[in-house]
Amino acid sequence: METSIERAPSVDRDQTTIYEQLTARGVSRRDFLKFCGWMSACMGLGADGMAQIAEALETKKRIPVIWMHFQECTCCSESFIRSSHPIVADILLDKISLDYTETLMAPSGHQAEASLQDTIKKYHGEYLLCCEGSIPTAADGVYCCIGGKTAADIVREVAEGAKAVIAWGNCACSGCVQAAKPNPTSATPINKVITGKPIVNVQGCPPIAEVMAGVLVHLLTFDRIPQLDALGRPMAFYSRRVHDTCYRRPNYDAGLFVESFDDENARKGYCLYKVGCKGPTTYNSCGTIRWNGGVSFPIQSGHGCIGCSESNFWDAGPFYQRLSDFPGFGIETTADKVGLGLGAATIAGAAAHAVLTNIRKHHEIGEQPGESAAEAPPTPATDSHGKGGK
Amino acid sequence: MHATASSAGAPGFQRVYVWELPVRFYHWLNALCILVLTVTGFIIANPPAINTASEASFSYWFGTTRFIHFVTAYVFVFNFAFRIYWGFVGNQYADWKNFLPLRLAQFREVMSVLKVDILQSSNRPLLAVGHNALAYLTYFVMFLVFLFQVASGFAMYANMSDAWFPHLFTWMTPLFGGDAGLHFWHHLATWFFILFTLIHVYLVFYHDYVEGHGVLSSMAGGWKFLPSSALKSPDGKSWFGGAKAREADDKAGPVI
Ligand code: HEM
Ligand code: HEM
Ligand code: SF4
Predict the structure, then answer these.
(1) CATH of the domain at A249
(2) B63 alpha carbon to ligand 1 midpoint, in Å?
(3) pLDDT tens across B141-184, in order?
(4) ipTM greater than 0.90
(5) Out of A250, B6, B182, B192, which residue is the most buried by the measure of CB atoms under 10 Å away?
């Protein structure tokens, strides 16, 4: 079973650095440095970032990685292995570092289980746990079982010896579509199942390949968790809204909006705000790194951002409407419809109250006995007017 | 601070200086801010369709609308903070303690306002020199919504600003699951102000019309005109209005 895992040829995985393994696989020094420079640019590091990355990859031993799959569609893995840079997918993870991953590893069944247990024991406290997918907790977790164990049990067991946890994608970070209302399996994000371990939420459905690689390289290079935002996402990639880096932004500021997808404004490439673009509330790097090696991103192809790197983005829909519907009143009930309804009711109530007032209080309304001008007491010679106030 | 009494006429009315200039100033600046924030807010939420052939770089009206919203937001916040300060140093009618119905007398007054003015199941005249206890309570609820609007607004604003103040509110974002939730609730709370204003303005007119004590103009000039007999207890102490009077009320036991 050991031999069935494809290995870098003739190098001991555990004792060599990533750089040594890369060169053993025929990657040139030039390509290696290009990779380092490109990564440091993606991560927004300064000019010396590239050197730091190169040094780390040259001197540090690889980090063992266990990559688990639970309730998910594997689009995170797909995104990752389709990265435009060969070092990322083919080499960095697939060939060198991955110790266990259901979808890419050669062994299966008992052999796979055994290699997982091996890794947990051998690298206790050192390995990185990467999770794709959410954890169902309803009905004692039976909705996702692997090898007879529930996802919740597995992830707790594996996380126990992990150095850090990376939650890949919206499923692992916030439950994605399976956690959308009514969430029948109680799909739960990783950070609600695991406690006491540093967890990095790499959001998106899926996350951008370069972002995933950047997070791994950051962990390798600096040996610590990158700076995270309030929702646990690495600031390097998630500190700015899609809206802030969107090339259609000047149209937004100028108030030039697409009104419907086939109108003249859409052809002119105006801002997609009014057709539901979630760019203003979505933190991600789509506007800068873009997808498929920088080819494009949703807004560039004419579709609004759907906010896939935000929690509960499915319930924050509809995708083609700016704000979500008002909960509990059926579909297409917006906050404005509720507000208008209440406003109308208020005006009707006030009108009814005004009528009631004129009936019930008619004795008190208008001139009362002793209030006509003729009955007013004579004004004293020295008036005190104007003293009381400021 | 009390106006001198008018000469003792048949009904014996007295001019009482209730709303000091800072309170009045606060009120109208606040009303103006809310108007501007609501209008610009709704424009931000659903900008009008404009078809121009011009390039985006020639125009910035939507950015300007948002800018007005944010500037007004700052004015609104400082004005609000000022009113809270005035609740500690202002006169007894502006006192912060009035806004919380913690005393039995205040609670009883809330119930009688409901009976007399809202349900109108009773015609017993009810006099308040400041606001009545129900009005104070309503303003308190509104102050809480102010706080929410400020916190959610600045939490959204924090990602467009390097200033320290907006970043004091970033803890709001995870509570609402991200920016989208903040937008939704910020938008919804706006309707609260609209409903409040409808009811508020109606009731101010209602009181002025039914009672004739000059409530409506009290926010302009500061004075109300109240029956002298109702203002003083037999021992000559001020009977109504403000936390101090209510304290005396509490000690005296049930009055109503
Ligand atoms: C009574 C006070 C306020 C009212 C009625 C109000 C109303 C609104 C409304 C209706 C929106 C549109 C929400 C949406 O549909 O996305 C909005 C957006 C916003 N408001 Fe307010 N607001 C108030 C106070 C504030 C304050 C104090 C701030 C603090 C800075 C603030 C900051 C914002 C921001 C940042 C946005 C989002 C703008 C954008 O999407 O670019 N608001 N406001
Ligand atoms: C034409 C519009 C308005 C008129 C005529 C008006 C009039 C008044 C009057 C006469 C009072 C004193 C009531 C009393 O003695 O019990 C008052 C108090 C108050 N009003 Fe208005 N008002 C208007 C709009 C608004 C708006 C838009 C708001 C905010 C949304 C507002 C918020 C308040 C608050 C908070 C108080 C209590 C003031 C304090 O104690 O600091 N008003 N208003
Ligand atoms: S298309 Fe979307 S992200 Fe781009 S400017 Fe418009 S609203 Fe913002």
Answers:
(1) 4.10.480.10
(2) 13
(3) 999 999 999 999 999 999 888 899 999 999 999 898 888 999 99
(4) no
(5) B182
